[in-house]
Design goal:
2 copies of one chain form a homodimer.
Chain A: H1 21-28, E1 32-36, E2 39-42, H2 44-63, E3 66-68, E4 74-76, H3 77-83, H4 85-88, E5 95-97, E6 103-106, H5 111-118, E7 130-139, E8 154-164, H6 167-187, E9 194-197, E10 208-214, E11 220-225, E12 231-233, E13 253-256, H7 263-270, E14 278-285, E15 291-297, H8 304-311, E16 315-317, E17 340-344, E18 354-360, E19 363-368, H9 370-373, E20 399-414, H10 416-420, E21 425-426, E22 432-433, E23 436-443, H11 444-454, E24 456-457, E25 460-461, E26 472-476, H12 482-497, E27 502-505, H13 511-521, E28 525-529, H14 531-535, E29 538-543, E30 549-553, H15 557-571
Parallel strand pairs in A: 3-7, 15-17, 26-27, 26-28
Antiparallel strand pairs in A: 1-2, 4-6, 5-6, 7-8, 8-23, 9-10, 10-20, 11-12, 11-20, 13-19, 14-15, 14-16, 18-19, 20-23, 21-22, 24-25, 28-29, 29-30
Helix pairs in contact in A: 1-11, 2-6, 2-11
Chain lengths: 573, 573
């Protein structure tokens, strides 16, 4: 099509409200338009990109025997009552009532709808396994949308659900889907996406993986071991420690630590290594504001996801009141009030000679030994893994923490939904079971943004040819020149006749404007027809990613472009 | 794919809650599943049909220079405040608040979003004309969803919006879109869809057309003239009448008509032709319950849409109270209370010697002459056209009223939205104007249902090949027979290798079960591989629509099928 007719404005200035590059580029390049907080409209270039991504996903899902279906966006609350998620999911689930006062929700994920669709179909073991998927709009009422299309409230997602009669069968299929996901990301031009073990959160189930595109602007933190390649979401990464055991024998002694409320102040004052101290982190449960105290080694941070999974409920940072019996800044394991749930991180196990609060304002203990001085029933894994930490796999100090954008995830759900929603099948022996589920998601718009984040320069995106809005961008520099116009028109027509997707810029604007618009559209192959090139009988073919810059003879240009398209496409196979 | 793996149940019995055939077939054939009132999930066969319909629509929209974009499903109420529709549209607009208490709506149509997307872009006349469209989920909180996919609350729709700088340009483009719509319906296998002039309703604007598939189960009534081909939605069709004038001179006389509340009772009693009587139909405005009385010739019915357009507000049937000053059953033009809005249908103009209510319980007038006896400022067109009525075009008694399903509509919107939402452009002389809009919708699921309604038999749908879920259905009758299995397997593989979309039934079930499942899937070409056919070295190729039944030599079967596909496809070009 002609650039002159393309709806949407392109401009140079980075909008001040854009924190990350992909967001700025999408706005500057006429890809998206803000409609409301976390809600955008897409212009044609982005719609073409997302349609290509959708098609790649569809093909890979079909290859693993997925059947494309469609679930509603608006769902009756009764379905979410069945699974229990109407109550358990927070306010990111948009609840409303229809004109008749019926409670409804906007689908943010469709496990319930999937079970409802196949509950009757799947009554015999002979029907298994099967997988259904959809590509559909979803709504998630995020508290803090950010980063353009990275974290939005309304988005298009491919979500898939598989049903199995055994854990082995699920695992086998899960591995196939893992491969299908790798294929999707490779074909979309981001083979660098890695999969990491993750926490399953509200989805239920145990084993799950996130597909991460590593970038400093990502929202997620990922622990990767340089030594063995282990990788996991920070939220899920197991924490292990050097042995804290020493053989020295310390005596428990109360010391005066006036006005020292932080572990740093206390350790400084007592000349103690933070590794030899006990930090108390206090939360309150959302349901009843009951206090939860987590004791952890002073140099470590609490991983709240692990605490949440352990407690099985939501909580928030505590407001410590006088009546709580807790002394903010001086909380310790010895003689702590019974009024709260107390958790001990395993970093404390075997330690001794530690500094900890004395549960009395302005006093700490030194010489604390958990085994001797406190009645600890069990230790848990509540700590956040950190840079330089020990790899839970190879046990070496190889952990590096990187940031990443989650572009997909896969879960082994187990029977959480089929049990609560009463989906059963009869096996060959006539016995009743709940089928085992897996689920598999990819955010389409977020993937587009992630590709842009990973592949751009100061001037705009560098789209892989497989998802680029168009394949070739013709710039007719000085289209008022008769020969330029004729050559460019002919090239445009010839390429379109070959089925090539062409953006044609024949506006009477300067080469500068033309090229900066082309940079913002990020089309992989640029064909420049100009008086200077034509003097040599040539058309200049350049790559958006600067990988080539070729002068093609005018009458060989089509042939050459077709060759370049094939070459670039090969990289995204 | 193999039928054995197709998710969804097929069965013979017509569900008792299905009023119309397409609904029953979609349920019986495993196309849809009820989720909530007017909300369905789609299984794979329907999803394949809707995707093909979407692709046909997309191609035709692209051909008229449409640019595919995407608007959000969830929109901020502020946009609808701008156009005034947040207030003016009834409870079919789903309103809700998000987690922050912001008012939002679910998009049921996207004029506001379209203007918001291009308001900045379209500031210069040089950018015009342009058209943007999307294919997206919409929600309309219908009071009475019905007929399966015919009237639902959630649906996928293609909606397009064009922007122009002159009425002429809009009209030229509107004609192009009209043609594009005819192309869509022809390609989707329903060339019998007709376009009718329609009422623009809440959309604003004047000229509009509905595309109707005529069927007795349709929701809409369409007036078609057998004589001249004129057609219009009943709601929009102008009513004209034989002259009611007679030269006789009647005297206005009050007569006692005890307990006669209906026009039939009164005419019966007075031996008057209902054509010589005045009927009063009473409504109340929704906003303030003010009364509206429409006087119309006794043999005619009121067209509420025309009244609504005249009043510019919503109303409901009246509850006539004592205080109203109205005497139910005896309301007439002479001496009617000032407390209400009074409208006169032009069927009364020039009449005389009429029967009408006397605004006094148990009394009517005879000999009423509107011109002489009542102070009538103007007559309007408030009547419903009826079977045998006069065609407003050729003036002959050629009107036939048919039922139809509306599968698309196009509107000349004018400046309603650009004005209210402050979208302007500068013309070549530097003067400011509001652009003129057109909008163009097609319901994807409804079109699928309408095709099914128009093309089915007792056993299932007869899908046109252009939108059929698969092109060929192989039935391996007696797949336990080694030769049948081998031949069918080979045929399946060969067809798939040719890119043909094949459903393959190799289940060990009876031919009866196989064929009734095939009927329910409605795939246009059926290839039956059976021991009997193989004895003659043949595969039997039959059409779902019974247009052919061919015995093809086994080794010519692929060739023959490809020929049949090409032949059937030709009909949908």
């Amino acid at each position: 099509m002609k650039l002159e007719k393309l709806v949407g404005d392109r401009f140079k200035e980075r909008p001040s409200d854009c924190q990350i590059d992909s967001h700025a580029i999408m706005v500057r390049g006429g890809y998206i338009k803000y409609v409301a907080n976390g809600i955008f409209s897409s212009y044609m270039p982005l719609r073409r990109i997302t349609r290509k991504i959708e098609q790649i996903i569809r093909e890979e899902m079909d290859k693993v025997d997925g059947q494309e279906v469609q679930f509603p966006v608006a769902l009756p609350a009764s379905l979410w009552d069945e699974s229990g998620r109407y109550e358990s999911v927070g306010s990111e689930l948009l609840r409303f009532t229809d004109r008749n006062g019926s409670r409804m929700v906007l689908g943010m994920t469709h496990e319930e709808a999937a079970v409802q669709l196949v509950r009757e179909y799947g009554q015999s073991y002979t029907k298994y396994p099967f997988m259904i998927y959809q590509i559909q709009t979803k709504f998630r009422d995020e508290a803090r949308p950010r980063g353009g299309l990275i974290r939005v409230r309304e988005f298009t997602m491919k979500d898939a659900y598989s049903f199995h009669t055994s854990q082995e069968d699920l695992e086998e299929y899960y591995a196939k889907c893992h491969q299908a996901y790798e294929n999707v990301f490779r074909r979309a031009g981001v083979p660098e996406v890695i999969s990491v073990a993750s926490d399953s959160g509200m989805m239920g189930g145990n084993v799950s993986h996130e597909f991460m595109l590593l970038t400093p602007v990502g929202e997620d933190s990922i622990a990767i071991c340089d030594e063995c390649g282990y990788s996991a979401n920070m939220e899920a990464a197991e924490c292990i420690y050097d042995e804290a055991v020493t053989l020295e024998n310390y005596e428990l002694q109360k010391v005066h630590t006036p006005d020292m409320h932080t572990i740093e102040q206390v350790c400084d004052y007592l000349k103690a290594d933070p590794k030899k101290s006990v930090k108390a982190v206090v939360y309150q449960k959302n349901e009843d504001d009951a206090y939860v105290v987590v004791f952890i080694r002073g140099d470590l941070d609490v991983n709240e996801t692990k605490v949440r999974n352990h407690l099985g409920c939501e909580f928030h940072p505590a407001v410590i009141t006088e009546e709580s019996g807790l002394h903010a800044g001086f909380i310790g394991p010895v003689g702590i009030t019974d009024n709260c749930t107390v958790l001990y991180d395993r970093s404390l196990q075997g330690g001794n000679g530690l500094v900890c609060g004395a549960n009395e304002t302005d006093y700490h203990y030194v010489g604390f030994s958990p085994a001797r001085d406190a009645d600890i029933k069990e230790y848990g894994d509540f700590a956040k893994i950190s840079d330089g930490g020990i790899c839970p796999n190879c046990k070496k100090h190889g952990i590096k923490v990187s940031r990443g954008i989650e572009v997909g995830n896969i879960f082994q759900l187990g029977t959480k939904y089929t049990k609560t929603m009463g989906m059963t099948y009869l096996d060959a022996n006539g016995e009743i079971h709940n089928p085992i589920m897996g689920c598999y998601g990819i955010g389409v718009g977020r993937l587009a943004a992630a590709v842009c984040e990973a592949h751009h320069d100061d001037y705009g995106p560098i789209w892989p040819i497989s998802i680029a809005p168009w394949q070739v961008h013709i710039c007719a520099v000085r289209s008022d020149d008769e020969q330029v116009k004729q050559t460019a028109d002919a090239l445009y027509e010839a390429l379109e006749n070959c089925g090539v997707e062409v953006m044609y810029d024949d506006r009477k604007v300067s080469a500068g404007v033309m090229f900066s618009d082309a940079d913002l559209l990020g089309i992989p192959i640029r064909a420049v027809v100009s008086p200077r090139n034509l003097k040599d009988g040539c058309v200049e073919l350049t790559a958006r990613d600067k990988s080539f810059d070729i002068k093609a003879q005018k009458d060989k240009a089509v042939e050459e472009i077709l060759r370049l398209i094939a070459e670039l496409s090969e990289k995204c196979r």
